[in-house]
Amino acid sequence: MTMSVQRTSSDDEVKGVEAIFLARHRDELRRRGLSRAALNIVGVMLFLTVWEMLPRLGLVGNIILFPPPSIVIQTMWPMTLSGEVPYNIAISLVRAGSGYVLASVLAITIGVLTARNRTIRDLLEPLLHGFRSIPAIAVVPISVLWFGIGEETKILLVTLGAFFPIWINTFIGVRDVHPIYLRSAACLGASRRQTLFLVILPAAIPLIIAGMRQGVAVSLIVLVAAELAGARAGVAYMMSLGHQLFRTDIMFGGLVILAVLGFTADRLFVGLCRRLFPWYRPAA
Amino acid sequence: MSLVSVQNVSHLYVGTDYAVTWALRAVDLELSKGTLTCIVGPSGCGKTTLLQLIAGFVEPTFGEVRLNSEPIRGPGPDRSVVFQEYALFAWMTARQNVEFGLRAAGMPKAERHKRSNELLAIMKLEAAADKYPHELSGGMRQRVAVARGLAIRPAVLLMDEPFAAVDAITRMTLQGELLRLWRELGLSILFITHNVDEAVYLSNQVVVMSAHPGTVKEIVSIDFPHPRDRGSAIFAKWYARISSSMDESERAAQELGAA
């Protein structure tokens, strides 16, 4: 059947052409999806191959200082089966997750307040911008001195780190909501509360999301710094143990775990945004 | 008794260099129930400011604006506004946009749905009900905006150059639909445009404004029955009448600018 219709085509012919067009479109989408997945896998395999070759051929370092993936897997697999790796991952995830959630709640609340209330903004903005310039990592030593190496310290450090990117983005997003949205809501009779939840927050979502994504990355950085400063479990703790035992394979295993955690968190985040905000399409 | 009454209203702006601009000076205007009034005038004549004063987005520097004899104290659902563009909530579907004002008023979901179904049907938007604004054409977006404005049954519908952003063909269709709604639902409409053809085609009453300072130059009643034939001699006569009035105000503004 040819892909064209004439003015004289019957309804059935038109329907037929539509069906073919749609089937081709679906095939094309499927082909694109498969080719993307295949290329993603090829990229990772290429990377692993190069990593395997470099130390084995003696091009970069040697197998002891720079363990290839095969050795890392040989080490990590039994540790995974014994539950050691999952335990450390779980501990780290709870720390990063609690700190991150706390940071999001605080940062979005304070972001809205500083953007919509002039008194609060004038009162807090210089302080927040000042504190924002201090890298959270710089606070790790003093907080260990003050609060010890307990869980609360680590969670609060993550909160501190993730707070600022989320706050600044929420602040800008809420402050710069297009006035025409606010006027539309006002002339349709929305109350202040309704305007906040139905208009201001959704309008600011793209920026809030950008801040929250940055927050995920910062959470991991601060988590690692906090665990390295003193911990009894966790992914970075496992790595520092590897360091003390001169087990580079464990150290590399930790790096791989951190990469996978960060990547998964980001993908989950993007997937969740697609689901929750179908009207908003993040570029990646 | 008039529906909207603008009494001796002046509105001033202060620029960055502390220069004072009279957006409006001593403006009087009465809108009665059931009329379709168009405001035409050159840019800078304060027509949008006038609409914003009636909407309650800004307060007049001097004078008073009243709705049903009550002074206007801010925006409210008795005066909904249809904006030129970007006013649909991007995060809501067409239906959710139409239901926004009803939701704000606390109307139960079932009733809300019934009302939005009616409006979507009137505006021929049934197929677009669950689409987001970015999936709709310009003309459809503006239909949704009109439906949203009408859903709350306002006393007056304020339209700020609503059809300026759509193409000429769609614009004519929308104008026809607006007239149909106005007649069928007995609406009171204030419509801002810079297009003389649009003003003559739509309105009972044309308010011609002039700029620097923004003032009402004259108010012309057009008693020529709808539907109006754009090709008729009487249409041409009214077109010429409004057009020359606008030219005069434009020329006056230019002379003032040159002086």
Structure characterization notes:
The complex is a heterodimer of chains A (284) and B (259). With 284 residues, chain A is mainly α. Chain A folds into two domains: 66 residues; 206 residues, MetI-like (MetI-like fold, Orthogonal Bundle), CATH 1.10.3720. Chain A contains ten helices and no strands. In chain A, α3 packs across α9. The longest helix of chain A has 46 residues. The two termini of chain A are 39 Å apart. Chain B is α/β, with parallel strands linked by helices. In chain B, 38% of the residues lie in helices and 24% in strands. Chain B has seven helices and ten strands. In chain B, the strands form two sheets. Chain B has a six-stranded mixed beta sheet, sandwiched between helices. In chain B, β7, α5 and β8 form a beta-alpha-beta unit. The mean pLDDT of chain B is 89. At the A-B interface, α7 and α8 of A face β6 and α2 of B.
> What is the CATH top level name of the largest domain in chain B?
Alpha Beta
Low-confidence stretches of chain A: none
The whole-angstrom Rg of chain A is 26 Å
CATH topology value of the largest domain in chain B: Rossmann fold
The fraction of residues in strands of chain A falls at: under 5%
Q: On the 0-100 scale, what is the average pLDDT of chain A?
A: 89
Distance, first to last CA of chain B: 42 Å
Which key phrases capture this entry?
heterodimer, A: about 280 residues, mainly alpha, MetI-like fold, 2 domains, 10 helices, about 80% helix, B: about 260 residues, alpha/beta, Rossmann fold, 6-stranded mixed beta sheet, 4-stranded antiparallel beta sheet, 7 helices, 10 strands, about 40% helix
